[in-house]
Amino acid sequence: MLEGIIYRYRCGIAWRDLPEVFGPWQTVWTWHHRLATEGTWDTIVRALIAQADAEGLVDWSVSVDSTIARAHQHATNTTRPTGGWIELHESGRRAA
Description:
- The chain is mainly alpha-helical.
- It has 4 helices and no strands.
- It is flat and about 55 Å long.
């Protein structure tokens, strides 16, 4: 079950796309959900981070990749050189 859960997160796939070698995806999801609601994952992560930090293996710098920061197409305040009412207005002059 643990390998199936890790595989799913490592690959970024949907639960339904989990390979059959891990068993039924519903079973793997159920175990993941159960461990998450019990707080087991939080306990494991805290213990692993504490151990790695004590051994000096953790670098606490943060990096953000802007390619994953998505914004809606209307979220920008810049104007486009084409499109909108100006282009439509000018196309009327070209048609005449």
